[in-house]
Amino acid sequence: MNEYKRENATLEARIEEIQKRSTYHDDHIRIADAWVLQLLQEIELLCEGTVSTHPNSKEFPYPSALSFKDSRDFQKHIGEKTKLVKTRLETLLNRLSGFREAIKPEVVQMESQIKHLLAAQKDYALKLERLETDKDDISQQLDTATLRYIKAEKRIDRMRSAQVQKMEEKALAHVTARPAPAENGNADQPAANSASLDALQGKYDESLAVINKQKEQLDKILGEIKTLQDENTTFRSKKEAATEEDYARTDLFKQVRSQNEDMIRRTNHLESANKQLREEIEKLQTDRTAFRTKLDAEAQSVANDLEDQIQAKDQDLTRIRSARDELVADVQIRKACQDQERTAFEHLNELVAAKEDRIAALESELGRLRPTEGADTTTPSAELEALSPEALRERFAKLEKDFILIQSEMPSVEKAYKKAIGLAQKKVMDFSALEERVTMLTLEKAKADQKYFAARKDMDIRIAEIRALRHQNSKSSEIIASLKDAEAQSRSVLSNFEKQLADFRQANTTIAEESRQLKATNADVARRLESSKAQIAELANLVKQKDAANAAMREQGANQETEHEKIKVRLTHVQKDRDSWKSKCLANSSEEEEMLRKFALCSVCRHNFKNAIIKTCGHVFCQTCIDARLSNRMRKCPSCNKAFDKMDVIIKDKSTKQDTADQSDDPDVVDYSNGTDPSCNANQLENGALRKKRSDQSREPQTLRQVSLMRRTSLRRQCLALHAALVLCAL
């Protein structure tokens, strides 16, 4: 059973730890989900300017699948959140470039306030969810407790049933039934059976008393449980059916109502001031619109003049560009002609030089070929044979002279020939290059013609486009005129919007002031709430400690009550045994026993045992007789008539605790308080009384303590002798 209790305690501790961890993980998951929802709402606020996702809607509940790690629902949930974040971020990035420049600081401040309010809302939602889970756990615990209570009630009804009582009576009758004595049995068999029967009867009475006491305790606990259930139902009904009157009686409602009345008064004052400011703003708006129209007219006239000047300058620019293009083309043509003339002039110079060389060669040839005066150059061979040596010498000299002239003529001829050949080749190459150039120029001319025709075609298209654009320009001028009219109307609408914006700003300032006051009150309430939470926590801890102490005290009290019932039953049995043994002893007593009994009894009343000592004379009497004499002012010893006072009396019951150590050191003192013999119960009570009376002995002087100790030891020896005599009588 103890092992089961230990296992139960360990399992309860583990369950409590697991509940704490699960609570922490649930809070963590709720916070993560709330953070994701907060992020989505902030992104939506930046993108669209409004918040469409509400925490109370069915679109964003706290799913139970978040409590499991490897759940597909959890993965699906996170995937949906990721898709939502991506889509919202895409819309944010697409719209920020166009709309972020027009956002004002007031709007940014309002967005930050909305973010803080949304975060506070998520915090309250988390707290509400936590309280709901705690409420569900408590309701589940209540259901289990009621189930246990019903089971215990059924068990009690089963125990109280008539059939169970009959079975118990049969079992007890079977246990306590006496067996029939044998014919040749022992003579001590009835005595042993009676002793065992008495012992079993005592145990039965003890267990019956314990059961009755436990039934009373169980009835008491059931009554307390019923009252607690009634109180719980009343408190729950009050909590669920809280009316407006209950809220109206609270201090917070009264404070909020007073603040609301103050706000209404201030709002009325601000509305009256707002009307005056609106009139002034309307006047200023009319002046501003008139000034704006004047500025717009002047700017429009200046813009028209500038547009006319720009058109004239554009026309001049096109004319100048066309003239520049013509001049550039003429210059290029002239440059090409000059280059051609220069090359032709160089060729002519080269030809002239070649011609001069040719002329010089021809002159030398002419000088060579020119015959001498009066001589015939053609003579036949026969004549040569007929010539004389002198004539031959002359002719040889002439031929030698011609040969010299030819030799001098040959270099110039060769030079002229080479120049003529080079010029001829150059001319041929030039002519071939010119032919190639002509072919290239023809091709370029064809391409230029194509480009020209394409340009003409493009020009025709451009002319058509220019006509269309002129037509569109005429239409756009009409549209611009209509747009100017629309702009004037939009300006009037804008002025109205500006008026409304001024009103909204004024209302915003009032709302901001109210928000500041509400924040201050909220901070005050939060401080009070924190202090009250701290007090509640302290009181809860104190109540838990008190409940634990109360439960321990109740358990201890129940155990003490059951033990008390057992002791009562034992006491009754012991008293019965004492009376029986006393009657037996009185029936079988001798003169010595009577003398010892009379010696132990008080000599005045002959009824009570001696338990009080007079210090002045040392005589011993019972406490009742001494108290009677002190109350009747008979302050003299009955034996020796020696005077004494209340302080001279020593009660043995008060010095029991102190004499316990002395009794352990005394070799003549034997403790029979734990004996099993029923005849020593009276002496046990007397010895217990003596031990209790020794507690005050430490207050007495040392000499009196020694005297009283001696007398008590003598009295104890007498009591032991009496006890021994009683035991002998019993045997």
From TrEMBL:
GO terms for cellular component: HULC complex; nucleus. InterPro entries: BRE1-like_CC (IPR058643), E3_ubiquit_lig_Bre1 (IPR013956), Znf_RING (IPR001841), Znf_RING/FYVE/PHD (IPR013083), Znf_RING_CS (IPR017907). It catalyses: S-ubiquitinyl-[E2 ubiquitin-conjugating enzyme]-L-cysteine + [acceptor protein]-L-lysine = [E2 ubiquitin-conjugating enzyme]-L-cysteine + N(6)-ubiquitinyl-[acceptor protein]-L-lysine. Residues 673-686 have a biased composition (Polar residues). Keywords: Chromatin regulator, Coiled coil, Metal-binding, Nucleus, Transferase, Ubl conjugation pathway, Zinc, Zinc-finger. It comes from the Eukaryota. Transmembrane segments: none annotated. Residues 602-641 form the RING-type domain. One of its GO terms (molecular function) is ubiquitin protein ligase activity. The keyword Zinc-finger applies. It holds the Pfam family zf-C3HC4_2. Its EC number is 2.3.2.27. It is found in: Nucleus. Residues 121-148, 197-365, 522-556 form a coiled coil. It is an enzyme of class 2 (transferase). CDD domains: RING-HC_Bre1-like (cd16499). Residues 673-704 are annotated as: Disordered. One of its GO terms (biological process) is protein ubiquitination. Pathway: Protein modification; protein ubiquitination. Belongs to the BRE1 family. PANTHER family: E3 UBIQUITIN-PROTEIN LIGASE BRE1, RING FINGER PROTEIN-RELATED. E3 ubiquitin-protein ligase that mediates monoubiquitination of histone H2B to form H2BK123ub1. H2BK123ub1 gives a specific tag for epigenetic transcriptional activation and is also a prerequisite for H3K4me and H3K79me formation. This is E3 ubiquitin protein ligase. It comes from Sporothrix schenckii 1099-18. The lineage of its organism: Eukaryota, Fungi, Dikarya, Ascomycota, Pezizomycotina.
